Amino acid sequence: MSYVIGIDFGTASARALLYNLKTNKESAVAVKEYKHGVMDHTLPDGTKLKEDWALQHPTDYLEAMTDTIRTIMDEENVNPHHVIGIGIDFTASTILPLNAAGEPLCLDNEHAHNPHSWVKLWKHHAAQEEADQITQLAKNREETFLKRYGGKISSEWMLPKILQMLKEAPHLFKRTDLFMEAGDWLVYQLTGELIRSSNTAGYKGLWNKSEGYPSKDFLSELHPQLKDIYDTKLRGEVRTIGKKAGALSVQMAERLGLVAGTAVAVNVIDAHAAVPAVGAVKPGQMVLAMGTSTCHMLLSENENLVEGVCGTVADGILPGFISYETGQVAVGDSFAWFVEQAISADVVIAAKNEGINIHTWLEKEANKQVPGEHGLMALDWWNGNRSILVDAHLSGAIIGLTLATKPADIYRSLLESTAYGTRIIVETFQNNQVPVTALFACGGLPKKNKLFMQIYADVLNRDIYLADSEEVTALGAAMFGATAAGKKAGGFDTIYNAAEEMARVNTEPIRPIPENVAKYETLFQLYKEMHEHFGRSHKEWMYQLRSIKSTV
To answer: Domain Carbohydrate kinase FGGY N-terminal: where (predicted)?
Structure first.
C-alpha cells in the first residue's frame, strides 16, 4: 500500500489530502484555518497597517501543516512507512524575510512591531509604487524580461515587495539574510534544502530558464543595494517543477508523524497545481482556478508576446512547455464584499426563512433573470486589475443603478463582470496567436454556484469542463509528491504519467445556452467599451478617487 500527501496552502487555511495510490482514490482530507488569518488592519500587537497591506503569520503555516497531516494519518490509520511522497502548493507571491539562522524576522520581538518583518501575502498591494518604478526602468532600458510579463510588473511580485522594504525599512533589509517564497520556505523547513521552484521563480521572481534573473546593471540602477540581491538574499538553486526538492528531515518527520527520508517535491503555486489535477496537460487547454481570485493558466509550444500576461515561463507550470498565466484579483472576494457589506436586512431575513445562506438566496433570485434584464454593467476591479491592464490603482464600478435596482440585480452583475473579464483575457490570447482550445474550471466557486458557471459558458460561448475532485489543488500537489517519489518507490517518473492516473474531471461540460449567448454578445461589447474608457483613456478618474480616499 502506497500513499502520497498533498498540502494546499490557501489564503485563509491549509488542507492536507491523503491519496491512496493502490486504490487510486482520495482517502482523507483535513482542513485548518490560520489562527491569525489575513492581517490587513493591525499586527498581533495592535500596530495599525496602512491601506493595501496584507500580511500573515508564518507559524500559522507550520501549525496547519502539522495538524492536518496528523489528522489524515490518524483518520486512515496509515503506517508512516507507506507514505512515499509529499507535495506542497502555496499562494504566490507570498514572501517572508529570514535572519541568518533561517528564522522569520517577525518572530524576533525586536522586529515584530514592524510590518515589514512579517509575511507579505500575495494580495499585499502596498508596493505598487515600487512595481511602477521597476516597470518604468525596464521600459527605459528596453529590458527583454519585461515583455515576458505583459509589459508591466505587478505589485504582488517578489521584487517590488523587497524594494518597498528596502526603501521603508532599510535596517530590516540589512538584517535579512534570505527572502523566500513561503512555499519554498516550507520545503526548506521540511528538507533543509535551499531550493527555489522554477514555478515561483519564473512567475514571481523574474527568473528565466535561458537568461536567468535580471542583470546586475539593471538591479544596480534600480537601487544600488539590489545589485547582488539574487546572489545573496535570493540565493539558492532554481529547480524545475516536477522534480524532487529533497528528503524529509528527522526533525520534521518526528513533528509530522512521518518517516525521515520521505520524498518532498519542489513547491508549486496553488492555482498551478490544478493544471495536472484536471488533466489539462496539452497545448491550448486553459484552466480557470476560481476562488477568492481567479488564475488563468495556459500551456503552449510557442512563446508569443501577450499583453497583460502575468508570466510567460518555460517549464513554468509543467516541464517541456511554455506556460502562460493571467488572473483576476477579485472574484469570490467581490461577491463576498457585497454579501458582507451591502446586503439589506430583508435579504438576510428572506434567506434565513428559507433555510439557505445569502449567496444561495441571491443566486436563486438572480437565476430568474435573463441576460440584460437588470440593466447594470459592473467592472471587476474591486482589488485592482491583474490582467490585462495590470493596474492595482483601478477600482470597481457598477453602472446603471436606479431606485428600482434590487440586491439580486447587483449580485448577478458582479457574477457577469468576472465572466466578461475572463473573456477579455481569452480574446487577448487568441488575438496574439496563442490558441485557447478548451476550458477547465476548478476551485470553490464552480462547485457552489451553478449560475456562475452557466454565465461563464454563455459569455465565452464555450463548453467548460469542471474538476471532479473536491480538493483539486491539494490533489495536484499530491501528484507532484508522487512524481518526486518516482516509479521505483511506487509513484510516477513524470507529472504526465501521474496525470494519466490521478487527474479528475467531469466528462460532461457546462454548455452555453444559445439565446443567452446572443444577448451576452451585445453586453460584452458594452463591457469592452467601458473597460477601455475607465481602464485606459480615463483611468485618472479612478486614480483621483483613490488618492482623495487615502488623504481623508
So the answer is: 3-274
What are 164's three cell numbers? 518597498
120 close to 55: Cβ distance less than 8 angstroms:
yes
Which of 421, 334, 383 has the alpha carbon at shortest distance from 546?
Answer: 383
Asked whether residue 453 is domain-assigned, the answer is: yes
pLDDT digits (tens, 9 = 90+) for 480-510: 999 999 999 999 999 999 999 999 999 999 9
Q: How far is the C-alpha of 455 from the C-alpha of 152, rounded, in Å?
A: 30
Which position has the grid cell 474591486?
382
Residue reference for cell 459592473:
378
* Domain ranges, residue 30: 3-272+472-502
Please give the single-letter amino acid code of residue 188: Y
C-alpha cell at 456: 461563464
Residue 508 belongs to some domain of the structure? no
pLDDT digits (tens, 9 = 90+) for 374-399: 999 999 999 899 899 988 889 999 99
The C-alpha angle 346, 347, 350, rounded to 5 degrees, equals 85
Distance, CA of 501 to CA of 11 (rounded, Å): 29
Domain of residue 497, CATH code: 3.30.420.40
Q: What is the pTM of this model?
A: 0.90
Residue 475 near residue 502 (C-beta atoms within 8 A): yes
Specify the number of domains making up the chain.
Answer: 2
